[in-house]
Amino acid sequence: MSKLSRLLAALLASSALAVSSASAALFNFTYSFDDGTFVSGSLSGDQNGQFVDNVSGVSFTVNGLSFVDPIFTFAYDSNTTSYLPGPVVSFDLAQNNFVFATSDLAASDFSYNYLFAILGSSTGVDLVTAYTYDPYVGSQETSDTPARWSLTLAPVPEAGSTLALSGIALLGLIAGRRFRR
Predict the structure, then answer these.
(1) What is the pTM of this model?
(2) What pLDDT band is residue 126 in, cutting at 50, 70 and 90?
């Protein structure tokens, strides 16, 4: 087996492995407030019925204001007024219970510059809030209007198309090498 054939086999095997090991999906979300404030962002996780589990990689903007601060994610327990690990993110507005902030609220660090939260309960939505402090933009409301919340699976290119493009590129390399001989 030539070096090029081994390289081709290794490249195709690693591409297939990379495609099959990516399990988390990317989701886009938006929320629009009565006063015109608009939140949009994305997160990674695993869809489980109406919920997204293993939430990570959260980013969001408020009225288009983006930032580079790390995002901490929590659920809020209204009985103990504490922030807990494991945000509850749902396609259904009223089933959400998450806080995304730029400080570790669970460690009582309330120095966040950016925060977005939807706190739902069995009786509906208790609170939806978004704040930025640099520059200040803030909005807070209770809303049972599901149309204001959108959580969608982001389009992802097919794994087959990635593998096909890799194969075509390798065939081009092989053809070029044979042509030079």
Answers:
(1) 0.73
(2) confident
